[in-house]
Amino acid sequence: MMNLIEACAVVAKQRPSDSLLVATMGAMFAFDRIDMEATGGDASRRPPGRISSVPLMGGAAGLGLGLALAMPQRSVVVVDGDASLLLELGGLVTVANARPDHFLHVVIRNGTQFSGLGNLATLQPSLSFAGLAKEAGYTHTEVIDSAQTWAMRFTELLSQSGPTFVELMVEQVPPRTGSGFELPEMPDLQFSRMGLELTALQQWLGTTTP
Description:
Layout (H helix, E strand, L loop, with lengths): L3 H11 L5 E4 L1 H15 L10 E3 L7 H11 L5 E6 H6 L2 H9 L4 E7 L2 E2 L6 E2 L7 H8 L3 E5 L2 H13 L3 E7 L19 H17 L5
Parallel strand pairs: 1-2, 1-3, 3-4, 4-8, 7-8
Antiparallel strand pairs: 5-6
Helix pairs in contact: 1-2, 1-7, 3-5
């Protein structure tokens, strides 16, 4: 089984430079860390085309679908969370019916919400997200439990016609709650960055062609 950084690193390293990436909160922090290490903390060198679906919990697939329909010439990768996707399961049917090409919907399956804090268990631990996506009508669905397999499969999965769904089996992050733990206040930036990133995306799209 892979960890969250390994799962997101495959996306960060292999997604095309003109592709679009939508990430929920857990993946957002992982991509931030990966980008910081790759750029030495220089935010101006962060790879473009990433949008954080925060605080739009449950809306990552819908946001990604909107981008895919508006710009069908670009590949779209959605890195969702299992707790987040549970809030908007109907989005699977919406995506499947729209049938965008080169649309890779990834769910981080770690079985928790508020991962790394209280690690509240998501409901129905035996639920198959890949099975739900298949029943909804995704063209291809797959479950992957190793970073090596994920790295080998990523490019092919993104290149397929029709929406593709991958359920990544990811290790839980140890919880930090306990005696003496004090929950830090969420910075305002976490709730405003989606708008800022969409503005930056609009500017970037105006200067690039796929």
